[in-house]
Amino acid sequence: MLRTPTGGAGHGTAAAGERTMSIGTVLLQLRDEFPEVTISKIRFLETEGLIEPQRTPSGYRKFGPADVERLAQVLRMQRDHYLPLKVIREHLEALARGEQVALPSQGAQGELGDGSWDQDPGAATAARIGRSELLAAAGITEEQLDEWESYGLVVPASGGSYGAEAVTVARLVADLGRFGLEPRHLRAVKAAAEREAGLVEQVVAPLRRHRNPQTRAHAEATARELAELSVRLHAALVQSALKVSFH
After folding, report:
1. Model pLDDT, residue 120
2. Distance between CA 20 and CA 1 in Å, rounded?
3. In Å, how far are 153, 223, 230 from 233, measured between CA atoms?
4. What distance lies between CA 152 and its chain's CA centroid?
5. Which secondary-structure segment (H or E) carries 157?
6. Could you tell me if 191 and 47 are in contact, meaning their C-beta atoms sit under 8 angstroms apart?
7. Are strands 128-129 and 61-62 parallel, antiparallel or unpaired?
8. What confidence tens digit (pLDDT) does each residue in 98-150 have?
């Protein structure tokens, strides 16, 4: 039975004197039940309006117990019922109004675990590199990497290693920085990429849950093709909006 979110509609407002936590502390609290959850995913769910943590004057997130419970509910509905974010949002709003919510039957868990909507780069199976190798490959400093990680632009795996995509991202962020674009300016780009990844995941999630290995392999091929099409569409839309030719 789904519990009503503590704090009702104002789930992002901690009570006076209530203990608050950083996003890293929240991640540690959730890891026992949701081992695949990442800081990137928590930020993604915030971008989608599923959670609304407080912000300090300097912009750091502060989560109250009600925020953590709401976040856990979102993750359970994804993991146990494979619900899209829009439906989860509607369920939480109904619960906040005191209404009863009927969830679909609990599906078989296994292949997907908690990762049905997780865009965590750490889940990739490609070869990984260490922090010093990433710094050298991208030609950046420790301070730059720390800042980019704080904005979720570069996300290490749980063991502190990085995937090949992190080198590409770091180089591109550095290149954009030479034009005066700071990490805070790129949050919208990151959020848009995660939303596009969510759309791809909606399509391939049923295939990934299939027991047939060939079907699951087809899911990965489909995801790659959809990702490529999404990138091409994004580039075309930017080109159209700027009314310039890239050729």
Report:
1. 36
2. 27
3. 21, 15, 5
4. 9
5. none
6. yes
7. unpaired
8. 888 777 655 433 333 333 333 333 333 345 788 888 888 888 899 999 999 99
